[in-house]
Amino acid sequence: MKKILTALLALTLCGVMFTACGKDDTSAEADTTTTVSETAEETKAETEAEAEETEAETKAETEAETEAETEAETEAAAVASYANLDEFAKSGDAFGLDMDTISASDSLTYNWLKVLDGADSIYMDVEATDGSMTMVMGMKEDMISMKMCEKASDTNMLIIFKDSKMYMLDEASKAGYYMSADESAMEDYDIGALLGDIDFDAEMEKAADVKVTAVEIGGEKHTFEIAETGGGFLFDKNEKLLAILSPDTSTEMTALKVNEFTGTAPDSLFEIPSDYQLIDMEAMLAE
User: Fold this and answer.
1) For residue 40, is it within any domain?
2) Is residue 48 part of a domain?
């Protein structure tokens, strides 16, 4: 599963995660006087004792409440807070937060990947955290498709890896070019081979531990995990994958919001339009 995570991380980010008593007697009259006196003294003693007990209980309750409030405030203060997803993604804090360690089988990241159990492909609909770019991505057998739309320029670019070639297509002009793809590099992204007969439960048992922490985004608790690949995976309060983050700060875009993730990529994603004018880049450069 490490290879699957690595492929996903690389592809999704390339375009761009707790009482008393007493008595005595002498004579009847004396007894009466004594009894009244003793009763008064006993009542006074009992009242004082009750008052002391109540005071002690109140003090203990107050101290306990104060301690609980302090712990809650300390815990709240320890949880990093961000106004929105874009602020969290661009803060640069994500991979430097204090984190705990859990087993891969207890992590949201690896259990989220189980959606691919029995799947033959991967489909993702993602966008930049600031909404500046959207991308639909598909992986099936040894094919990859990435359709990117930059909102500012309204530019649509389609990249397809198929039949050992890479195609760069522009929808507006219905034109593009193609060249040979590096087959040795593409082997790492052969999702058909990666998925194969993989036993997800067995793979989770062998996987390295995952780092985890809580973050507050938009006033709601989220869970951020860092897998053995080094990639970050952000989940919302319902444990749904919200974003994938890259630790590579040298790139302009280090995070993508995940709108949809399934194990079914339609064949249409990998089709080369027949009405596009295509240029063989290698042949052109050889002239």
Assistant:
1) no
2) no
